[in-house]
Specification:
It comes from Roseibium salinum. This protein is of the alpha/beta class. It is built from 8 helices and 7 strands. The model has no long low-confidence stretch (mean pLDDT about 95).
Length: about 250
């Protein structure tokens, strides 16, 4: 981190998928600012929580949850609010970009992918509204992706969800802006998490992608942390309904 946002100290933060990949970097970043962090994911995050407690002197609250189970997701968010106070920062980060061919998609895969990549986002947003309203405001950061902007092939249900996230973000920003609840999206480029390296990265594909970037370097999870902290903090107090692209300069907007 190169930026400091003092107003995030003691903030009640909830992150989906906060124990691995970009989510783990976000948990680390918020803890580094003194925030109270709770996160959900399916796999065991106890070792990661041990690491964070040793590093920061405070332990994130890990709640095991499949975010496609909306009742379980909402119950986890209620537990986080009971432990840390009303959630005033929500980061919808968890996603799954499993590759697929459009002609082979069936209803079960569609429901699963939309459930992870869009439906869970909507209902997580819904869950925090009352607490943010009572607290006098809050910030929601929804993860999208540049993949839909580029018309990327090979994962069309995922890109459909990404585009939907931006529409949802704009509408919720308009609906809840009068209550000082801000809703923004962040659209990363190709961030080289361990999952990406294991499943999709080849020397040829990476070289081709970096060639499309204005900045000629690999992008890593830490590159996303400061932009999310900015959107979460009052430093971005006049921003809502926006999509912040962090991709090294592939999708040039404006």
């Amino acid at each position: 981190m190169v930026a400091n946002f003092p107003d995030l100290k003691d903030a009640s933060v909830f992150i989906t998928g906060g124990g691995s990949g970009i989510g783990a970097a976000l948990t680390d970043g918020f803890l580094g600012h003194g925030a109270k962090v709770a996160f959900v994911q399916r796999s065991d995050a106890a070792p990661f929580c041990d690491e964070m407690e040793k590093k920061h002197g405070s332990r994130p609250l890990f709640l095991s949850c499949d975010i496609t189970d909306i009742a379980a997701l909402k119950a986890s968010m209620e537990k986080a609010a009971e432990a840390h106070g009303a959630i005033t920062v929500l980061v919808n980060n968890a996603a799954n970009d499993t590759r697929h061919k459009a002609e082979e998609v069936d209803e079960a895969f569609w429901e699963w992918s939309i459930g992870i990549n869009l439906k869970a986002y909507y209902f997580a947003c819904q869950q925090v509204i009352a607490g943010m309203r009572a607290a006098g405001g809050g910030s929601i950061v929804n993860f999208s992706s540049i993949s839909y902007m580029m018309g990327a092939a090979g994962y069309s249900v995922y890109t459909t969800a990404n585009s939907g996230i931006n529409g949802m973000t704009r509408s919720l920003a308009r609906e809840f802006g009068p209550e000082n609840i801000r809703v923004n999206a962040i659209a990363p480029g190709w961030i080289l998490t361990e999952r990406q390296k294991e499943l999709w990265v080849t020397p040829e594909s990476l070289a081709a992608h970096i060639d499309r970037q204005c900045l000629k370097r690999e992008l890593v999870p830490d590159d996303i942390v400061d932009p999310v902290l900015f959107l979460a903090s009052k430093a971005s107090r006049a921003m809502t309904g926006q999509a912040l692209v962090v991709d090294g300069g592939v999708a040039v907007t404006g």
